[in-house]
From TrEMBL:
InterPro entries: DEAD/DEAH_box_helicase_dom, Helicase_ATP-bd, Helicase_C-like, P-loop_NTPase, PriA, PriA_3primeBD, PriA_3primeBD_sf, PriA_C. This is Replication restart protein PriA. Initiates the restart of stalled replication forks, which reloads the replicative helicase on sites other than the origin of replication. Recognizes and binds to abandoned replication forks and remodels them to uncover a helicase loading site. Promotes assembly of the primosome at these replication forks. Its EC number is 5.6.2.4. Transmembrane segments: none annotated. GO terms for cellular component: primosome complex. It catalyses: Couples ATP hydrolysis with the unwinding of duplex DNA by translocating in the 3'-5' direction; ATP + H2O = ADP + phosphate + H(+). Component of the replication restart primosome. Pfam families: DEAD, Helicase_C, PriA_3primeBD, PriA_C, Zn_ribbon_PriA. Residues 219-385 form the Helicase ATP-binding domain. Zn(2+) 2 binds at residues 453, 456, 471, 474.
Length: 739
């Protein structure tokens, strides 16, 4: 008689393994008593890892003698609910990615590392009323005196938690205990996420807004699953629509998840939410400390935060009462993660909304082509808001032909004149250039030598303030050469412009106008972006210079002129999405102009004023341009008329990536039949980066099912190829970049 195979627990561990691992329950417990969603400590080889139970009470194909028990349980109740576990499993399947790594993306850092679920909230300290650092009791305790002074500086009116005290030099805890004993400091225990104040002013919705709100969530109980595209021109008041929808969701007892682009979660936006809703709002963004993130996440997971607002990874937050999902600026590329688990937060959000019977709103002035396509095919409901809210009018757009014109550091005389006029009239001007640094190229005037990154084969960007050359592809940095290494001529010349040069030129040209630059270089420090955006509103800086960071959803009421320095970068790019991106970018950057009473003007410098895309966009607007691009995509058999997956490979040697992909293609081809095209392998559009040669193989199918079938069957074969050991390879399902 064979003994029945033991019941086991399946655990996802943070390792690049396709499957979860099988374990026996800890001694004294039945496998079925360990709930999925609980964290456990397990041994893998010699390592001890924190894993997440994804299944329990099932049987294993592994011989009982070879199974190890789980070492210990870290949670009493599941940390991750069944629905979120379902989402994790779906993401692992759909993106063909190791499930343990999906879990890593889904959990906040502390919880991933096994930190406890701290239900008590957090401890905070405030100075006792009248406490004075100069009090005689502290005369001989200098450090305690300093800490009390520090607390008072942070604000005597409220208590401050560890997060705020972290900046105090040295170990503050024993000092705080001493102060407490002296009665100079009072300890408080508080929930880690306090309700926001609410009670702020609200707009009376205009008819277009009312129609959108009622169409998406009719008064009353939760309407259930459905995807709604809210296509509203820039400044049409989409945020106000979201707020009203959230109000309805909350009234129906449901939670709302709001996803925003990477740099869209600004203090202004948060303030708008906090002044509208007197509830705990969990804001998940990169500026959070580990403790704050855990708190926000746990509060949401317990259903105690009715609103969760965050960037892409917030899509994994457990939300037991989810009723509404808002994806703001749904076309934004930052919703797609570009490394490791290459998921699209919008697509996962829709999947989970379907599971939980939630409404989805995709909001944008420039919807992604796949979203528009779904709306036109009737899969998504489509709502329009064609006019700006309040008194604001649409901006006027004009092309400035820069062919055969003398440019002053990239600026035409016409643009400079327009800037001068606006400044004289007291307006604010925004100049957009999607290239940071001083100049993209440093060239020797003697022999034509160009400073190149030896690891990427591309020109290095000259950064004047730092006096460095930086590679924007691999972050390599070098000192500025004083002379050409080839011919010895001194002072190589910067060629072309970046935002840093623009800032310098404008400051010299308009010495009385303050210039504020916003790009990745000026906002590296935590909190710097928020400070600079605040400064935009202060009115101190009439001239704003920036990259894409300045274009996303910001509301700058005083900006009346927007200048686009170079529209041509996107016109001839090899990427099949370049035109879509350019159209979105131009409309979004133009959308920053004239958002209040003053009308806005947009001037676009281009050397291709006859380009059909620019003409259609300016004459007929984004929907017409989108139609034209969709027609091109249909003809080329590209998304949304096809489904793609991209296999990428890289290695130090030139031959290995192509060899692996050729072997991969050979392994996949017999199974691809006539349903999946294998295009390539070819060297990547950027054939070398950070010292590694790169190549790619594109898989294309008319429908999703055969593509995913091929991937499910094929990837294990690729794992086993001998060529796979000489490369680093990855799969990108629904890639947004083909390089
Ligand atoms: N019904 C209304 N009446 C008056 N003003 C309104 C109304 N709705 C919104 N506004 C104002 O219009 C401005 C633009 O609104 P909002 O920022 O929501 O636009 P948006 O559609 O999100 O724009 P974008 O796509 O450019 O981010 C804001 O200052 C907002 O306060
Ligand atoms: Zn480089």
């Amino acid at each position: 008689m064979t003994s029945p195979s033991p019941r086991i627990i399946r655990v996802a561990v943070p390792l690049p393994l396709r499957e979860a691992l099988d374990y026996l329950p800890p001694s004294g417990k039945a496998a079925s008593a360990v709930s999925p969603g609980v964290r456990v400590l397990v041994r893998v080889g010699q390592r001890r890892l924190v894993g997440l139970v994804v299944e329990s009470g099932v049987s294993s194909v592994i011989a009982p003698g070879r199974l190890r028990p789980v070492q210990s349980l870290l949670d009493e109740a599941p940390l991750v609910d069944a629905q979120t576990l379902g989402l994790i499993r779906f993401a692992a399947d759909y993106y063909h990615h190791p499930i343990g790594e999906v879990v890593m993306n889904a959990l906040p850092g502390l919880l991933r590392e096994g930190a406890p679920v701290d239900a008590a909230g957090e401890t905070a300290w405030r100075a006792a009323p009248g406490a004075d650092p100069a009090a005689p009791g502290l005369a001989r305790a200098m450090r305690q005196r300093e800490l009390l002074g520090y607390l008072l500086e942070l604000g005597a009116d409220r208590a401050h938690a560890a997060e705020a005290l972290a900046a105090f030099p040295g170990d503050w805890r024993p000092l705080m205990r001493a102060l407490e004993e002296k009665g100079l400091v009072v300890r408080e225990q508080r929930p880690c996420l306090a309700p926001s104040p609410g009670g702020g002013e609200r707009h009376v919705l205009n008819p277009a807004q009312v129609e959108a709100v009622d169409g998406i969530w009719p008064q009353g109980p939760a309407p259930g699953f459905g995807v709604h595209l809210l296509e509203g021109v820039t400044g049409s008041g989409k945020t106000e629509v979201y707020l009203s929808l959230i109000e309805r969701a909350l009234a129906a007892g449901r939670q709302a998840l709001v996803l925003v682009p990477e740099i869209g979660l600004t203090p202004q936006l948060l303030a708008r939410f906090r002044s509208r809703f007197a509830v705990p709002i969990a804001a998940l963004h990169s500026g959070l400390g580990d403790g704050e993130r855990r708190c926000a996440w746990l509060t949401a997971a317990r259903g105690a935060a009715p609103i969760v607002i965050g960037t892409r990874s917030a899509v994994f937050t457990p939300l037991p009462h989810l009723g509404l999902v808002v994806v703001d600026e749904e076309h934004d590329a930052s919703f797609k993660q570009q490394e490791n688990l290459r998921y699209h937060a919008r697509d996962l959000a829709i999947w989970r909304a379907r599971q939980q019977g939630a409404r989805v709103v995709l909001g944008s002035a420039t919807p992604a082509l796949e979203t528009l396509h779904h709306a036109r095919e009737g899969r998504y409901a489509h709502h329009h808001m064609l006019a700006r809210a309040g008194a604001a009018r649409p901006p006027t757009l004009r092309l400035l032909d820069v062919r055969h014109k003398r440019l002053d550091s990239g600026l035409s005389a016409q643009l400079l004149a327009a800037v001068g006029e606006r400044l004289a009239a007291g307006g604010q001007v925004l100049l957009f250039l999607n290239r940071r640094g001083f100049a993209p190229v440093l060239i020797c005037q003697g022999c034509g030598w160009v400073a190149r990154c030896p690891r990427c084969d591309t020109p290095m960007t000259y950064h004047a303030q730092a006096r460095r050359l930086r590679c924007h592809h691999c972050d390599r940095e070098t000192r500025l050469p004083e002379a050409c290494p080839e011919c010895g001529q001194v002072d190589p010349m910067p060629l072309g412009q970046g935002t840093e040069r623009l800032e310098t030129v404008l400051a010299a040209r308009f010495p009385d106008a303050g210039v504020l630059r916003i790009d990745r270089d000026t906002t590296r420090r935590r909190g710097a972006l928020a400070e600079r955006l605040e400064a935009v509103h202060s009115g101190e800086y009439p001239l704003l210079v920036g990259t894409q960071m300045l274009t996303k959803g910001h509301h700058f009421p005083s900006v009346t002129l927007v200048g686009v320095i170079d529209a041509d970068q996107g016109l001839y790019s090899v990427d099949y999405r370049a035109h879509e991106r350019l159209a979105q970018l131009l409309v979004q950057v133009a959308g920053r102009a004239g958002r209040a009473e003053q009308p806005g003007e947009v001037l676009i410098q281009t050397g291709q004023p006859e380009h059909p895309l620019l003409i259609t966009l300016l004459r007929d607007g984004y929907p017409a341009a989108a139609d034209a691009i969709l027609a091109e995509r249909r003809a080329a058999g590209m998304p949304p008329f096809a489904h793609l997956a991209l296999l990428r490979a890289e290695a130090p040697g030139e031959a290995a990536p192509m060899a692996f992909l050729a072997a991969a293609a050979a392994a996949l081809r017999p199974r691809a039949a006539r349903t999946v095209d294998l295009l390539g392998p070819v060297p990547a559009p950027m054939p070398r980066r950070a010292g590694r040669h790169r190549a790619q193989l594109l898989l294309r199918a008319r429908s999703r099912a055969p593509l995913h079938r091929l991937l499910s069957e094929g990837l294990p074969l690729l794992d086993a190829l001998p060529e796979a050991r000489r490369v680093r390879w990855s799969l990108d399902v629904d890639p947004v970049d083909l390089y």
